[in-house]
Amino acid sequence: MTLLPTTLRSVFIGVDVATGSTRAGLFNEDGKLLGSASSPIQIWKDGDCVEINEKDSRDMEASGWDDGFWEEIGLGDLVDGHHAKIGRSVAFPGHALGSGLTLNDAMELGLMAGTPVGTALIDAHASVVGIMESVPASDSESIAMVPEYWLTGGGQSSTGSLLDHIIENHVASPHLANRAASRRISIFDLLNETLELMKQDEGSPFIAALTNDIHILPDFHGNRSLIADPKSKGMISGLTLGTSEKQLALLYLATVQGIAYGTHHIVEHCNANGHKKFKTGIFFIRPLMILGGHAC
Questions:
Q1: Which part of the chain is the Carbohydrate kinase FGGY C-terminal domain (predicted)?
Q2: d(CA 26, CA 32)
Q3: Of the candidates 23, 21, 16, 13, which has an alpha carbon nearest to the alpha carbon of residue 122?
Q4: Tens digits of per-residue pLDDT, 79-116?
Q5: Per-residue pLDDT, 144
Q6: What is the rounded average pLDDT of the residues 247-271?
Q7: Cα gap 124→117, rounded to integer Å
C-alpha cells in the first residue's frame, strides 16, 4: 500500500507561456526555486501576420476547437485524430480540471492528492486579472478580456532576460553584484544610483541624456511586435573599450530605453490605426500599468 508523505508543506507553482517556450517553476514560501521544467513552442511565420479573433472562452468550452480556423492558417493537421495533438477538451480559465492532483504527482510535490488544479492563464491575460482592481471605474469598460471587447497583444520578446544578459555578461558585473549584496539592495538599485551620480557629475539635464552616444536595438530574441520576425537580431551601437561600472550602467540604461522605445512603437502604431471601442468609436491608449518582473 502506498501512503502519502506525513509532512506537508506549502509550495507554489508558476507557469509562464513566453515567446519561445512554456516554463514552469515550483517555489517554497520563501521564494526559493525547488524545481523547474520547460517545453519549446514552435514558431511559424509565412508572409503577413495572422490576426486572431479569439472566440469567447465560454463559447469554446461548449463548442470546442474552431476547425475552420486551424485549416485557414495552415495547421489543419491539428484537427486530425479528433484533435489528438492538442487535446479534445477546452476549459474556461480557472475551471477545476479532473479530480485534482493524482496520487503520484501529489507525492512528488509533497502535496495532498486531489489538490485542485485549474486551467491556467497565459501571462498577458493573467496580468489583466492582476490590475482589474487598479483601473478606475471610468476606464473599466476598455479593459481587455471584458466580454464584447478585444484583447490586443503587442508583445516584446524576452526583455527581462535581455537585461540579465547585458548585466551578467559584463566584466564589472561580479563586483557590482557583491557590492549590492553587501548593502542588501538589488543590482538594479545600485545601477540606478550610479546613473544618478553620473548625471550630477556630468551636469546632464536628465539621466536619459547620458546615453546620447550609445543605443541598443533589443531584438536579441527576435521581434514579436510590430515586425513579427523571430529571426530578427539585436544590436549595440556606441561601444568603447571601457570596462567600468559606469560603462555597465550606461549599457543597462540604453537597454531599458531600447525596450521602452519598443513599447512606444507598439502604442504609437495602435493609436495611429485607430483602436475602435465597441459601439462608441475611437479611443487612444492612455495609461500604462507595468506588471511582472519589470514592475519590481
A1: 144-294
A2: 8
A3: 16
A4: 888 888 888 777 777 778 888 889 998 898 888 999 98
A5: 46
A6: 91
A7: 20
**Torsions phi, psi for 208 (to 5 deg):** -60, -25
What is the rounded distance in angstroms from the CA atom of residue 1 to the CA atom of residue 132? 47
Mean pLDDT of the residues in the chain? 77
Cα–Cα distance measured from residue 191 to residue 210, given in angstroms and rounded to the nearest whole number = 13
Query: What is the per-residue pLDDT for 165?
Result: 94
> Alpha-carbon distance 146 to 56, whole Å?
10
> Cell 561580479 belongs to which residue?
174
DSSP characters over 140-207: GGG-TTSTTS-------TTHHHHHHHHHHTSTTHHHHHHHHHHTT--HHHHHHHHHHHHHHHHT-SSG
Q: Which residues are paired to 221 by β-bridges?
A: none
Max avg pLDDT among 66-70, 97-101, 190-194? 190-194
Query: Considering all CA atoms of the chain, what is the largest pairwise distance in Å, rounded to the nearest integer?
Result: 74
For the chain, list the strands marked E by DSSP.
11-17, 21-28, 33-40, 215-217, 235-237, 276-277, 281-282
Among candidate residues 160, 163, 183, 187, the one with its CA nearest the CA of residue 252: 163
What length does the chain have? 296
pLDDT at 19: 55
**How many C-alpha atoms does 286 have within 13 Å on its Cβ side?**
10
pTM exceeds 0.70, yes or no: no
